[in-house]
Specification:
Order of helices and strands: HHHEEHHHHHHHHHHHH
Strand order of the largest sheet: 1-2
Strand content: under 5%
Distance between the termini: 23 Å
Helix content: over 70%
Largest sheet: 2 strands, antiparallel
């Protein structure tokens, strides 16, 4: 669990959670339990995603994947334990019971049968049956987008945001979630293992449904930029406090890993 959770990585999701709380005028520490929990869920999903039964990857964050470093059974159990620890962390370290309950509900919905897991199911299915642009967006709105949106919303919940603020944060999360996945797909085509910390070129080899595969490389880059600009426009509402969220949105299209 420590090997995977504490390995070098972007920590995008917990950072989003903390910055969202800050954008609403709260100290980032207010959302620390939610931030830690969302990273644990993300990490569990990576461990399972890398297994031979899924994407069969041997490199993650520049190191051997969990099942390569240890074994498949240990990797499955480490992922299972991280999933449970995420909710334990929220429930144990959140002072307000209403905030804890709402946070757990948002996280379970994002990670579960209508969110990340559903997206992964369809992603694997598309390798065999193919798909179109509609299917592509449906996959990544759940597989990647649901957890990124939840990361932003969880920061808002910790800051006790009102319904309007939660909707704005959710819209921001939707936009950067799509942009993030587009760039991820592009890096698999144009990046290197040294830069990304994982094998590249594997999406095409496995017949995955990707943005460059559907739209082409330049059109995919243009789409990512459009979604980032939409995200930046959304957080204009928060004034100067939203500046870090704008900077993070721009980082998404500038990143090389």
């Amino acid at each position: 669990m420590r090997y995977s959770l504490l390995s070098p990585g972007k920590r995008l999701r917990p950072i989003l959670c903390l910055l969202s709380a800050e954008a609403l005028g709260c100290a980032p520490a207010t959302a620390m339990a939610n931030a830690a929990a969302v990273e644990m869920i993300h990490c569990y999903s990576l461990i399972h995603d890398d297994l031979p039964a899924m994407d069969d990857d041997d490199l993650r964050r520049g190191r051997p994947t969990c099942h390569i470093q240890f074994d498949e059974a240990t990797a499955i159990l480490a992922g299972d334990a991280l999933q449970a620890l995420a909710f334990e962390t929220i429930l144990q370290d959140t002072v307000d019971p209403a905030v804890a309950a709402k946070s757990c509900l948002v996280l379970t919905r994002a990670a579960g049968a209508e969110g990340m897991v559903a997206g992964q199911v369809d992603d694997l299915l598309a390798e065999k049956t193919g798909g179109d642009a509609k299917m592509l967006h449906a996959i990544h709105a759940r597989k990647t987008g649901a957890m990124i949106r939840a990361s932003v919303v969880l920061g808002g919940i910790a800051a006790k945001a009102n319904a309007e603020q939660i909707e704005l944060l959710s819209n921001y999360g939707d936009c950067i979630g799509i942009a993030f996945q587009i760039v991820d797909d592009l890096l698999d085509v144009e990046g290197t293992a040294e830069n990304t910390g994982k094998r590249t070129g594997k999406d095409q080899d496995r017949g995955k449904l990707t943005f460059p595969g559907i739209y082409g490389i330049q059109a995919s880059k243009d789409r990512a930029e459009q979604f980032v600009e939409q995200a930046i426009a959304v957080v204009d509402t928060f004034g100067p406090a939203g500046k870090p969220l704008k900077q993070l949105a721009r980082y998404i299209t500038d990143r090389s890993h």
